Amino acid sequence: MIELIGASRTYKIGAIEVNALRTTNLKIEQGEFVAIIGPSGSGKSTLLHILGFLDRPDKGTYRFQGKDVTALGSKELALLRNQMIGFIFQQFHLLPRLSAIQNAMLPLIYGGKGHFQETASEKIRQVGLGHRADHVPNELSGGEQQRVSIARALVNDPLLLLADEPTGNLDSKSESEIISILEGLNHDGKTIIMVTHEKSIAERASRIIQMHDGKIVSDTYSRQPSAGMSEMAAAKHNMASQKTGLRRTAEFLDHLKQSFQSIIGHKMRSVLSMLGILIGVGAVIAMLAVAGGARESISENLSKLGSNLLMIWPESHNSRQGVSLGAGAVPSFTLEDAMAMKKLPLIRRASPYISGRVQLVYGNKNWNSRLEGTGTDYPEMKNIQVQTGRFFTEEELRSRDRVAVLGVTIVSELFGEENPLGCNIRINRVNFRVIGVLKPRGGGHWDNDDVIMMPVTTAMYRMLGRKYVDRMEVEVRNAEMIGQAQEDIKDLLAKRHHLNNEARDNVSIRDMTEIQNMLNATTKTMSWLLGSIAAISLLVGGIGIMNIMLVSVTERTHEIGLRKAIGARDSDIMLQFLIESVVMTVTGGLCGIMLGCGVAVLLSKLAEWPIKVSLFSIVLSVTFSMAIGLLFGILPARQASKLDPIKALRYE
After folding, report:
1. Among candidate residues 295, 307, 224, the one with its CA nearest the CA of residue 479
2. Across all residues in the chain, what is the average pLDDT?
3. How far, in Å, CA of 72 to CA of 46, rounded?
4. What's the per-residue H, E or C state across 163-199?
5. What's the rounded Cα separation, in Å, for the pair 154 and 230?
6. Distance (Å, rounded) from C-alpha 5 to C-alpha 571?
7. Residue 606 Ramachandran class (φ > 0 left, ψ -120 to 50 alpha, else beta)
8. 157-193: buried (b, 16+ CB within 10 Å) or exposed (e) per residue?
C-alpha cells in the first residue's frame, strides 16, 4: 500500500539546514496498525506528514497503492488527502463555531458530497456521540472532541488513518477509549499509522517503528496485521483512485453557508468591516438622490417655461426708444413683428412680451408686483393655466381692455379668503377688472405666483407708456426645426427692419433647449462630483474590508491548515474567503441602501431639497460594493490559499 524509497526531507531555518528525515525506506501493507515512536526531533511527524501528502520528500520516491505520487500537483494531493486519508490530530483541530456533526461533515463538503449529512451522522454514532451531535466543541470533553476528530477522519471512508499523538491531551480513561476505537477500526480493515511518545500506547499496535535523528532504527512486529478490507471495499477504493481526476468541485452553497457561519461567529469584526461599505453606499444613494432631484426640479421648472421655445431680443433691447446704437444695431420690436412671425411656416405660436413693476391697491390693502403684458398665445406656449375664471381674449387684446389675471400670491395678499373674480383693483391708479386667477407655479429665482398678467396692448399703452415690446417669444413646431426657424426669424426681421448682415446676426435668439442642456450638464457634473466623493468612501470601506480579511487570515491559520489537511484545495480556500468578502460588502451595501434612502428623505424634509432615488443608483451601489468585495478580497483570499498546511497547523 505504502512504499518509501530513499526518502529524505531537509528544512531550512534561516541559514541552518535541519535533516528531519534521512534516506528512509519503508513499506506498509494494507490493514496494518503501525506505531511510530521516538524522542522529539526524531522525524516522526515529518514522516507522518509525507505519508499524509501534507509534505513532499526532497529526495527519493513515495509510492501509494503502487503509483508514484512524489511529483503530483497540489490539486491532486488535496484530492488524495480528501478521499484516501483520514487525519486524527493531538489538538483535535475542531472548528469552534461548528457543531460535532458539522465538523464531521467538512471532508464531505470538499469531496463534493456536502449533502450527505446522514453519512456524518452515522460516523458520529459509530464513535458513540450520537446524543452529542449538535454540541459545539467547547461543550464537549477532550475525549469527546477526539471522537469527533475520528468521525471526521472516517466520514469519507478513507484507506488510511493517520493519528498524530491521538491520546496526548487525554486522561487515562479517554486514552484507553480512543485506542480501543482505533483497534476496532483496524480490526475492520483500516490501515492506521499512529505517532506516539508512549511505549504502552505503541505496544497496542501490530507494528512498532523506532526513529532517531531522522532515521528508522528499529522495525518490529508484535502481531500479524489485520486480514484487511473486504474485496468489495478494496474494489471501491481502487475505483476511487482511478477516478482521481473526476472529483467534483465543492458546492458553492456549502461555501456560502460556511461564510455566513464565519461572519456570524465574529459579529463585531464583521459589523466594523461592513461599516465602511455601509457609509459609502449610503452616501452614493443620498448624493445621487439629491442630484437626481435637482435635475428633475430643473426639468420641471423648464417645462413650465414651455417647450421648443425661442426668446428673441434685439441687440439694442436695453434701449426703450429703439435708438440706433451703431451700424450693426437692431431696432426694438413692435407688435407687428410678432404678428408677422406668427405667419412663418415653422412657427406654431408667437407672442410679444413686456414687463414692469406696478403698485396694486384693493380696498385698504396695497401690494407691489410684477406686471406681464402678453399675447393670447402666451399661456399655451408657457404652460400657464387658469385656476378660476379665464384668460383674456383676442378681442380684449385689440381693444386694450383693462382686464387682469392675478397670481395666487397677489390674491392672498389683497383678497385673503375673498373671491377676487369680478372685483375691481387699481393698478398704478388705473381701475382693472379681475377676470381670472392663475394656478400656482411655484418659485424659482423669484416668486412666479407674484405676477399680474394683462393684454400686451393694455400694458404698453395704458400702463407703461411704451411703443416697443421687451422681447418676442415663439414656439417652433418641433425641436428638429429650431435651427431653421432661427434663420427664418432673422431673415424676416432683416427684411422688415432693413438690416444689414451684421445687424441681422446681432439679433439675439435664445433657445430654451440650450438653457436646459447647460443646466443638465451642470447637474451632471455635480452628480459625478458627488458620486466620486461617495465612491472614495466606498474605496476606503473596501480597504477596511481587506485589512479585516487579512487579520482574519492570521486568526484562522489553524482553520485553514485543517481544511487543507482534510482535502480543501487552494481554490476552495480562496473561494471561501472571496465569498466572505463579497457577502460582507453586499450586506453592507444593502444596509447602505436603506441608510441612503433614509438620509435622502431626511434631507427632503429638513432642508427642503428635491430628491429622486433612482433604481440605477441602487444597482450601481450594490454592483460596485460587490466589485469592491471581489477586488479587495483577492489579496487576503490568495494569501489564505497559499498557506502551507503543516505550518498552518503548527501556527501559534
Report:
1. 307
2. 83
3. 18
4. EECCCCCCCHHHHHHHHHHHHHHHHCCCEEEEECCCH
5. 17
6. 31
7. alpha
8. ebbbbbbbbbbbbbeeebbebbbebbbebbeebbbbb
Cell digits of residue 649:
497547523
Contact 3, 26 (CB under 8 A): yes
Amino acid (one-letter) located at 405: V
Name which of 259, 151, 167 is nearest 204 in CA terms: 167
pLDDT tens per residue across span 577-598: 888 888 888 888 888 888 888 8
For residue 304, which amino acid is it? Answer: K
- Judged by phi (left if over 0) then psi (alpha if -120 to 50, else beta), residue 77 lies in alpha
Q: Are 4 and 59 in contact, with CB atoms under 8 Å apart?
A: no
Contact (CB, 8 A) for 416 and 456: no
Beta bridge partners of 454: 373
Type of residue at 253: L
What Cα–Cα distance (Å) separates residue 97 from each residue in 158, 286, 566? 25, 38, 18
**Residues 438, 384: contact at Cβ < 8 Å?**
yes
In contact, 101 and 133? CB cutoff 8 Å? yes
Give per-residue pLDDT as tens, 59-99. Answer: 999 999 889 898 888 888 888 888 888 988 888 888 888 88
Give me the amino acid identity at 454.
M
Pair type for strands 160-164 and 471-476: unpaired
The helix (run of H) or strand (run of E) holding residue 36 is: strand 33-37
Q: What does the pLDDT read at residue 286?
A: 82
Closest CA to 36 of 78, 82, 2, 84: 2
* Residue 532 CB partners (closer than 8 Å, separation 6+): none
Kindly tell me if the per-residue pLDDT of 13 is higher than 50: yes
Closest CA to 188 of 152, 164, 156, 157: 157
Closest CA to 592 of 566, 554, 634, 623: 623
C-alpha 202/C-alpha 186 separation (Å) is 14
pLDDT in tens, 98-146: 889 988 888 888 877 756 778 888 889 888 888 888 999 999 988 889 8
Bridge partner residues of 118 (DSSP): none
Q: List Cβ neighbours of 346 (8 Å cut-off, separation of 6 or more).
A: 476, 477, 481, 484, 485, 488
CA dist., res. 571 & res. 215, Å (int): 36
Q: Is residue 476 pLDDT above 70, yes or no?
A: yes
Which residues are CB-neighbours of 621 under 8 A, at least 6 positions away? Answer: 281, 284, 285, 538, 589, 592, 593, 596
**Spatial distance between the Cα atoms of 219 and 205, rounded to a whole number of angstroms:** 12
> In whole angstroms, what is the distance from residue 211 CA to residue 221 CA?
15
Which residues, 6+ apart, have CB-to-CB distance to 644 below 8 Å? Answer: none
